[in-house]
């Protein structure tokens, strides 16, 4: 049985990034992973421009006079004439600075003294004030985004600011999933004794597309070795990665392990963690396979903690693991366990500081805890937690992913 760290390291060493790319419109690029660097062919801004509405002039003239004739008007998007010596130019935010001007005085620091004359009433002025200089944001030939970066809305704005209409990204992975268990019912079916509804199928149906992958849902598979083998063959033919829930324990009705051993190999199937000990990894005729536990919370936890970083690496992403937020515990955990535990937790505000509280029932079948919670609190092996101790909190949806 591997420790959590050993298992995660092992999985990431086995994840081979895709080399399949495509060029797509910037309109369709949100959430995609860059496959090529974005290098700016231009300066941003492309010219010195005004930071605000006001008057462009030269500081030398201001040393000798405070009243100026307005010699031209410069809206954004126009090309100004050179500034006439001893005059000021009416200028608007984003407009190019005319040749011969070296500052902009905001209009609130001026007053009108005639039909076409203004007086500067600013207490202080200095060269280059209120001017955005050429290349201040982005210099020409600068790499602004690197391969492996997951594109966010602000990234799309940055890319379009240098004129790109398309980007080269990795093609999304295709993930095939199925669930096992004759005890499972589908939503809409009448409740039956000894049966439960197939929550795991719909958790996976949300988790996989949320990461930007294509999902092939093969539904529920009958609890027999033959049905499991056939489902695995089909999944391996259709997908880049196969993910299942249930059937990875050692009971007589758990067929995932023997089916994998028949079709390929099983490299890992136990992790020293809670919830989620029966986590499996191997391959089906060369296609990577991840077997999540059948308990709903265990499946949710192991997908987030193992499958997510594994799949992101395969997708070519750089940010694989979320960074913890270290906060005070608003709970006691007095039973030190030999396995690392991931307690469902959420942030609360107490006395104007953020602290972490945990759901009162941490059972692996209590799916309510994942809805109530915002993330996981890590309880290290052989460790007690006392109220006020610092703990590592990992959000379910990392902001830097």
Based on the model shown, name its key terms.
elongated, six-stranded mixed β-sheet, 8 helices, about 30% strand
Q: Which oligomerization state do the chains in this entry correspond to?
A: single chain
Name the poorly predicted regions: none
Q: How are the strands ordered across the major sheet? A: 8-5-7-6-10-9
Helix count, DSSP H or I runs of 4 or more residues: 8
Give the biggest beta sheet: 6 strands, mixed
- Given helix and strand content, the structural type is alpha/beta
The shape, in one word, is elongated
Rg to the nearest angstrom?
30 Å
Q: Give the overall average pLDDT.
A: 94
The beta-strand count equals 27
Estimated helix fraction: 10-25%
Q: Compute the separation of the termini in Å.
A: 29 Å
Please report which band the strand proportion falls in: under 5%, 5-15%, 15-25%, 25-35%, 35-45% or over 45%: 25-35%
Task: Describe this structure as you would to a colleague.
With 401 residues, this protein is an alpha/beta fold. It contains 8 helices and 27 strands. It has helices at residues 4-14, 59-64, 153-160, 199-210, 225-238, 256-263, 296-314, 368-372; strands spanning 2-3, 21-25, 38-39, 49-50, 54-57, 67-74, 87-91, 103-106, 110-114, 117-120, 131-132, 143-145, 166-170, 174-180, 184-185, 196-197, 214-221, 241-245, 264-268, 271-274, 280-284, 287-292, 325-329, 340-350, 353-358, 375-379, 390-395. A 6-stranded mixed beta sheet has the order 8-5-7-6-10-9. A 6-stranded mixed beta sheet has the order 17-14-18-22-21-19, sandwiched between helices. Helix 1 (4-14) packs parallel to helix 7 (296-314) and helix 4 runs parallel beside helix 7. The longest helix has 19 residues, at 296-314. The model has no long low-confidence stretch (mean pLDDT 94).
């Amino acid at each position: 049985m591997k420790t959590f760290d050993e298992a995660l390291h092992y999985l990431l060493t086995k994840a081979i990034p895709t080399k399949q790319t495509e060029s797509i419109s910037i309109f369709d690029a949100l959430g995609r992973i860059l496959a090529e660097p974005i290098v700016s062919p231009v300066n941003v801004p492309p010219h010195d421009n005004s930071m605000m509405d006001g008057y462009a002039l030269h500081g030398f003239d201001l040393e000798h006079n405070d009243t100026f004739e307005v010699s031209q008007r410069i809206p954004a998007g126009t090309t100004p004439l050179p500034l006439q010596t001893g005059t000021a130019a009416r200028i608007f935010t984003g407009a190019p600075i005319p040749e011969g001007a070296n500052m902009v005085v905001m209009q609130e620091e001026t007053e009108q003294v005639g039909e076409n004359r203004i007086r500067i009433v600013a207490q202080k002025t200095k060269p280059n004030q209120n001017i955005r200089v050429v290349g201040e944001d982005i210099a020409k030939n600068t790499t602004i985004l690197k391969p492996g970066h997951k594109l966010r809305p602000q990234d799309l704005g940055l890319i379009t600011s240098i004129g790109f209409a398309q980007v080269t990204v990795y093609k999304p992975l295709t993930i095939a999933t199925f669930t096992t268990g004759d005890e499972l019912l589908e939503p809409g079916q009448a409740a039956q004794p000894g049966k439960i509804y197939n929550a795991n199928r719909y958790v996976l149906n949300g988790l996989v597309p949320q990461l930007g992958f294509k999902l092939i849902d093969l539904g529920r598979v009958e609890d027999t070795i033959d049905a499991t083998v056939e489902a695995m063959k089909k999944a391996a033919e259709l997908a880049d990665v196969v993910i299942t829930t249930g059937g990875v324990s050692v009971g007589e009705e758990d067929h995932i392990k023997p089916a994998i051993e028949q079709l390929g190999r099983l490299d890992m199937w136990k992790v020293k963690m809670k919830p989620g000990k029966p986590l499996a990894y191997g391959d089906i005729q060369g296609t990577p396979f991840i077997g999540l536990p059948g308990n709903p919370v265990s499946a949710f936890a192991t997908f987030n903690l193992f499958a997510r970083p594994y799949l992101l690496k395969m997708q070519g992403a750089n940010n694989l693991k979320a960074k913890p937020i270290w906060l005070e515990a608003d709970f006691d955990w007095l039973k030190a366990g030999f396995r690392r535990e991931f307690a469902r937790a959420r942030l609360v505000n107490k006395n104007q500081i953020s602290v972490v509280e945990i759901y009162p029932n941490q059972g692996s079948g209590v799916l309510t805890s994942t809805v109530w919670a915002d993330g996981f609190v890590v309880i290290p092996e052989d460790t007690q937690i006392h109220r006020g101790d610092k703990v590592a909190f990992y959000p379910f949806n990392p902001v830097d992913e």
